[in-house]
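Job type: complex structure
Entries:
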Amino acid sequence: MSKLYRSREGTISAVDTKTQLSTLGSETAPGPLLVPAGIRTLHAVITAMATSQAVAADGSVILRLEGPGLPEGPETLVVGSQGVSVATGGHGSRTANRIILDIPVTVANEILLFGENVGEDVGDVTLGATLEFI
Amino acid sequence: MSRTITVEGDVNAIDTRTLLTSQGSVTAPSLVVPAGMTKIKQFVATGAADGLAAGHGIFFVRLGGNAVLGGEQTIMFGGEDSIAVQAGSDAAPSLGSFFKLDDADIDVRPSDTITIAAELAGVDVGDTTVAITLVYGK
């Protein structure tokens, strides 16, 4: 069985606030992220993030996975962290990260993705997540 | 046996699907999946931004077209952030990101055409450049 890749992204604007990732770039309303037919597990999650660097602070970013597509309940993953000493003159380039998992899923049910800036407020954060299904 | 295709392009508009159809001096490389190749075995991507706008965006690819079985595949591969410097200061360089997905294992149909598009989602960081390699196999 080959793999299938499904993604969502969104912008987090408040610290310690669960924010749903519900868009995908040029698609402003891609609809629910459903577990595709024939899939048995969430094999990995790939995440990418970027921040506005507009606040002299340091914080981390986490991803929450929830919804009826996850029969064992919600999961959380670390995405990355950010800190700057001044709010001017930053420029970052970040590689996506991939975490291998083995999480059972329920076909045709939705997985909801949420991002959260935890710790200190680092400004705005754009977060993208790809679910790698087998 | 493996075969490769590399495409590149500028992704200069935020939240815009941008087809990658060139390869430097080769303006129109073939996007037909080579005969006998039935999978994308590896996915490799790099991206960088000039940082001339204060923003924060994430790169992702859309692999589609008639050759891709199982529907369009979307994969995140990097992020770019930038904030304007104080007057009279120099900005730090952006060294670019490099992401490699081994065992991508995406089914494709040989001798059919693949489309490779990239997007920067979020808030515009200026101009960006993206290059992507697909490694085909069986």
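Summary: Chain B touches chain A through 53 residues (CB under 8 Å). Chain B has one domain: 3-24+33-82+95-137.
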